[in-house]
């Protein structure tokens, strides 16, 4: 299953990403173990998910194990990060970005709870 605060999705994408994104934003990290930038970005995303105190949920999808999901969502390079809100991709980026830029991106795209 992975570490707390993250989910390794297999056949549960509909339930764990699309359906859950109607409750709170779901950030999906498409990655692979051989990808150097993924190994840099992944721990940062995990730490920020924990810091968010449940404001958004992190789901990690190994694109080697789930090429069908990567194709469905137009992943052409990894890491590819997609933010799902209400069942659709609301924002996305590709590549490892520095933590300050990642924090700004999250602040800009993750809705603040009312």
Lay out the secondary structure.
Layout: H1 13-19, E1 26-31, H2 36-51, E2 57-62, H3 67-72, E3 80-85, E4 88-94, H4 99-109
Parallel strand pairs: 1-2
Antiparallel strand pairs: 1-3, 3-4
Organism: Rubricoccus marinus
InterPro entries: Thioredoxin, Thioredoxin-like_sf, Thioredoxin_CS, Thioredoxin_domain
Site (Deprotonates C-terminal active site Cys): 29
Annotation keywords:
single chain; 114 residues; alpha+beta; Glutaredoxin; four-stranded mixed β-sheet; 4 helices; 4 strands; 35% helix; disordered N terminus; Thioredoxin_CS; transport; Thioredoxin-like_sf; disulfide bond; protein-disulfide reductase activity
Query: What number is the mean pLDDT?
Result: 89
Helix content: 25-40%
Q: What's the CATH superfamily, by name?
A: Glutaredoxin
CATH fold field value: Glutaredoxin
């Amino acid at each position: 299953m992975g570490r707390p605060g993250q989910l390794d999705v297999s056949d549960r994408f509909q339930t764990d990403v699309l359906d859950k994104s109607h409750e709170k934003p779901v950030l999906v990290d498409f990655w692979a173990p051989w990808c150097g930038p993924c190994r840099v970005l992944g721990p940062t995303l995990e730490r920020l998910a924990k810091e968010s105190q449940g404001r958004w949920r992190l789901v990690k999808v190994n694109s080697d194990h789930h090429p069908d999901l990567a194709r469905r969502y137009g992943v052409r390079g990894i890491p590819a990060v997609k933010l799902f809100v209400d069942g659709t991709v609301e924002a996305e980026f590709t590549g490892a970005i520095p933590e300050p830029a990642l924090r700004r991106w999250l602040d800009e795209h993750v809705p603040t709870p009312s």
